[in-house]
TrEMBL record:
PANTHER family, A to Z: NAD(P)H-DEPENDENT FMN-CONTAINING OXIDOREDUCTASE YWQN-RELATED
UniProt entry tagged with the keyword Flavoprotein: yes
Name assigned to this protein: FMN reductase
Alphabetical list of Gene3D superfamilies matching this protein: 3.40.50.360
Residue ranges constituting the NADPH-dependent FMN reductase-like domain according to the UniProt record: 1-116
GO MF terms, alphabetically ordered: oxidoreductase activity
Matches recorded under Pfam families: FMN_red
Keyword annotations of the record: Flavoprotein, FMN
Length: 153
């Protein structure tokens, strides 16, 4: 099974990156730092279709297992991760892109999170889980790493 870890964090080398590196070794997975890409917010008129999202999403479709990794920021995923999920709507809105979107039905997903708490809040995991399940994906696992508070994380 070919896996990729999509991750986002305000600190490229922080706790999330450490968790991603550990899991990537375990799964022999590729990893991709979303914050390196220009992913604009969803727009009803699709005026942002020239950013990096569509090419990035198409590349992700080549994997069987997608891990979404984010620190817990105020009970939520990072803004870049949220933009990534919102932009999937581009493929729903355009009938010519819908066949590509349907490829997600054969995919598995996992959630990798970290915070100072023992577990990720349900509102955090539900955003990813409910979106992926709506798209027909199967949940493989949820992993949460607890890290002590650090001033610059």
């Amino acid at each position: 099974m070919k896996s990729i870890i999509l991750y986002s964090s305000s600190n490229r080398q922080g706790n999330t990156a450490q968790s991603v590196q550990q899991l990537a070794q375990q799964l022999q997975a590729d990893s991709l730092y979303l914050d390196d890409y220009d992913i604009k917010d969803y727009c009803y008129n699709h005026s942002n279709s020239e950013d990096d999202f569509r090419a990035l999403f198409r590349a992700v479709l080549n994997y069987d297992h997608i891990v979404f990794a984010s620190p817990v920021y105020w009970y939520a995923i990072t803004p870049k991760m949220k933009a990534f999920f919102d932009r999937i709507t581009d493929f729903m809105d355009d009938e010519t892109l819908q066949p590509e979107l349907r490829r997600l039905r054969d995919k598995q997903f996992s959630i990798l999170s970290n915070s100072i708490q023992e577990t990720a809040p349900r509102c955090f995991t539900e955003v990813i889980q409910k979106t992926c399940e709506y798209l027909g994906m199967t949940c493989r696992e949820q992993i949460h790493h607890q890290y002590p508070y650090q001033e610059n994380e």
